[in-house]
Structures are given as C-alpha cells and as structure tokens.
# Entry
Amino acid sequence: MALADGHLPVLPLGADKRPLGNCRNCADLACGGRPNMKTPGPCVCPWPCHGWAAATTNPPVLASRQWGLAWRRARAIGYHPGGANVTVVDLDNADAVEWARATLPATTTVATTRGEHWIYSGTVRSVNGVREGVDIKSMMSYARWLGPGTGTMTDVPTAVHRLVEEKPADRPAPRAVTVPAPTGNGTCPHRSPVYLERGIAMAEQRITAATSGVHATVYRTFLAVLSAHGRCGCLTETHIGRLFLAAQAKGESPRHCTDAWSNATTVLGM
# Structure
C-alpha cells in the first residue's frame, strides 16, 4: 500500500516470480494465463486478475478480498515500470553488469539475485534479450520490487533507445477483428452522427491513455460504449473495430478483445 501511495502500480508475484491469479478461477494460473500477457490459455476473466495489466495503485482494489487471497500467497511484489514512468534495464549476470558500467550512464541501481536492475526515468518499449543477459522492462511488462536502490535516477539514455529500436517488436501488429454489431430497437440517444462519433473517439482516447490497469480500462470502456450506444442499432462493426485496434495497440490480443466485448454484452443483457 505504501508503494501504491507513492504512485508505483503493484501486483503480487509467486515464488517463481510469475504474477499470481487474483481470482478463484485463475488461482495458480489454472486458467492457463491470458493471451495479452504473452502466455497461452483460455482465460476470459472480465477483470485484470494477473499480469502486468493488473498492476494498480488503487487502494480498494489492493485491499479487496480477491487480491487479499493472492497477497497472502505472494512471495514477492511486482510492479509495472511503464505505469510508474520508469524503465528497468535488467542485467542478469556479471558480464551484463560489466557491460552496463562501461556503456550506460549512472542511475539508480538495485541488486538482484544474479545481477542488477538499472532504473531510468522515462518509458520505452519492453524487449527481452537485447543482448546477452540484458532485458528492457518498461511498457507492458513487470519487474520485481527489490527496494528503492541507490544512486540518483537519470533519463533513459540513447544507448537503451537504440537497443530497443534495433530489436524487432515481439507483439504482432494489430489486426481487424469482426464481431457482430448489437441490434436493438431502443430509443436512440444520438441527436446527430457527431454525438456517436464523439463517443467512440473518447473511448479510443481512454484506452490509449491507460498506463496501468489496461485490461480493466478496455473492459470498462467496452461496457460504457455498449451501455450508451449499443441498444439502438447505431453502433456498427466499423466503430467496434476502431475500439479493438486501440486495445490491441495497448497490448490486448484480438482474442482477448473479443472475450472482453462478449463479457460486456453479457453483463448488459444484450
């Protein structure tokens, strides 16, 4: 709670350093993991129960019964570096640490079991294996909290940006996904096409602006769009496709977008 109060989005990790499932269905990752966490599996849980997107600073969520069960089983605290506007250069062995000392500017450093974390201010794309024993953890990733470290934090250096840019992205490019547009004969609240367009644009912006709790943001945005625009027949597949592309750009898989949309329609009885 103290870390969250300091604007560090946190999540519980198990003894194997992997995120714990925070709901009964996902305990011990019985669901197989979530596609947007880069692990295969059928999980369709409507809430962000595990993975980097579950990291949060929200006290009621952290203190909830679901999270409480996970915290009691946790063996470490994880956090979302990108949500805290930092980048972690994870140095996994002595050779990697020696390389960093010769190549990168000094910054906040934290000792790990096998090497060091060098923490810089600012965010970049997360990439594993940029060189032997070196991973970059920032956006759409998580790292273990091992203490505040020592030294003064400096900005992400050019050398790290260059390593990230030279490494191909692991995430597949967003692709169009077609789901049936809801049909309905309810009262149309759209005084003009501009009203609906503004609503979709605001929803896209809400998803794009999310830095933590991405999974929850996507689901709640889908829920809000369907609640406001889904009962009169004005919402089209093109509108839905725009929302799905915005979600994929934040790391959600096409399948997870479909699952979240389906869960939202079910909750609303549509």
Summary: The CA atoms of residues 223 and 264 lie 5 Å apart.
